[in-house]
């Protein structure tokens, strides 16, 4: 590509990238968190959250007496000791879930027998948390002495990042309480998955920059995108992911493959003017294209309609920004179809959007991508 064209792409795309960055910084300041780092720590708010969780666990108003930065004595209303609770806020930053830290409270009796584990304030997707709660994940340590626990529960498929982060929080808190050293074991399965994501990314870049020579790779790359990024890894770029990673951070060791995918998704159109992610790598876009091959005679979408819907997509982005600012618990994942690949955790709205889009792709070329996708508009050249 000629140097002049690259320079022209950068000049054209810089204002948009700056706007996106400014909006994300504004949301980060408003949420008091940038890449998972708390900008202004308010211990009173954190203690209030622990108090709420403790009251709910014991079924009555209890009194927490701080023993140190991690451990609290728990007393009932009569002043009697009913147990103790340790929280992982001091270690939570070291291990992030899908959307930042996942601090926990570990409830024990005076002898150190675990009575229960509960999540403290977090930004994980509610569907993921509800699913692992229903599976009894937080009860995995019950009835065991904190100093004797060596075996940890298995991560739950469809919420792997969340469960792995909670397990790491438990292990770090356990190490503190028992005065032992915590070493994070290498997760070979996750490493293999992230390397597979990188492999598909490399193939998509080859097809993107050498389309004439790699036509035979087009369908295999689409299938790999659906199979590896979608079904296996649940690795996709979305408005929710961009927002939550910027504000609440993520774990590089757990998601290094997807992090590189996200960076590439912005850099390639910004510099080279090519829609590499949307056209060649997005698992939902790939699913639409593969299903669309059932009918080669597609209906054309009028140019005027395409122009109108570009304004619609920007309108959707503005509305979503306002909603997230006003309601921190709003689930952005429920307004895009990407979590359909995590079918056990997908919301009803996601299933409906995905189903309508896939069926429509038989008659129109990638209808979700071309008409409604807000993520695609963010990445658009």
UniProtKB/TrEMBL annotation:
Q: What are the GO MF terms of this UniProt record?
A: 4 iron, 4 sulfur cluster binding; FMN binding; metal ion binding
Q: Which Pfam families match?
A: Fer4_5 (PF12801), FMN_bind (PF04205)
An example GO CC term for this entry is: plasma membrane
UniProt KW keywords: 4Fe-4S, Electron transport, Iron, Iron-sulfur, Membrane, Metal-binding, Transmembrane, Transmembrane helix, Transport
Q: Which SMART domains match?
A: FMN_bind
Which residues are in the FMN-binding domain?
Answer: 97-177
Q: Which segments cross the bilayer?
A: 188-210, 222-243, 255-272, 311-330, 342-364
User: Is this entry keyworded Iron?
Assistant: yes
- Write down what this protein is called: Putative membrane bound regulatory protein
Which organism encodes this protein?
Mucinivorans hirudinis
Lineage, highest ranks first? Bacteria, Pseudomonadati, Bacteroidota, Bacteroidia, Bacteroidales
């Amino acid at each position: 590509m000629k140097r002049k064209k690259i320079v022209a792409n950068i000049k054209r795309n810089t204002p948009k990238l700056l706007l996106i960055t400014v909006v994300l910084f504004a949301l980060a300041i408003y949420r008091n968190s940038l890449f998972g780092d708390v900008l202004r720590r308010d211990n009173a708010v954190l203690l209030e959250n622990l108090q709420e969780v403790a009251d709910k666990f014991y079924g009555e108003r209890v009194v927490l007496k701080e023993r140190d930065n991690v451990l609290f004595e728990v007393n009932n209303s009569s002043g009697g000791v009913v147990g103790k609770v340790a929280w992982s806020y001091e270690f939570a930053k070291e291990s992030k879930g899908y959307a930042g830290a996942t601090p926990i409270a570990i409830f024990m009796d005076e002898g150190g027998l675990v009575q229960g584990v509960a999540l403290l304030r977090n930004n994980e997707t509610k569907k993921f948390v509800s699913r692992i709660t229903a599976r009894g994940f937080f009860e995995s340590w019950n009835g065991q002495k904190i100093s004797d626990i060596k075996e940890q529960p298995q991560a739950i498929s469809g919420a792997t990042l969340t469960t792995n982060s909670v397990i790491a929080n438990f292990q770090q808190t356990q190490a503190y309480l028992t005065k032992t050293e915590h070493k994070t074991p290498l997760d070979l399965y996750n490493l293999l998955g992230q390397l597979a994501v990188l492999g598909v990314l490399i193939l998509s870049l080859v097809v993107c920059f050498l389309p004439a020579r790699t036509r035979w790779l087009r369908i295999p790359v689409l299938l790999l995108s659906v199979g590896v990024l979608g079904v296996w890894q649940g690795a996709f770029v979305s408005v929710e992911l961009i927002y939550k990673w910027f504000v609440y951070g993520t774990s590089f060791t757990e998601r290094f493959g997807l992090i590189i995918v996200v960076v590439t998704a912005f850099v390639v159109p910004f510099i080279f003017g090519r829609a590499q992610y949307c056209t060649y790598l997005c698992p939902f876009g790939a699913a639409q294209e593969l299903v669309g091959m059932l009918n080669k005679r597609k209906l054309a979408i009028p140019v005027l309609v395409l122009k109108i819907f570009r304004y619609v997509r920007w309108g959707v982005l503005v509305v979503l920004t306002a909603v997230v600012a006003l309601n921190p618990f709003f689930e952005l994942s429920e307004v895009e179809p990407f979590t359909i690949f995590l079918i056990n955790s997908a919301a009803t709205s996601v299933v409906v959007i995905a189903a309508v889009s896939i069926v429509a792709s038989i008659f129109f070329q990638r209808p979700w991508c071309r008409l409604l996708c807000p993520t695609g508009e963010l990445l658009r050249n």
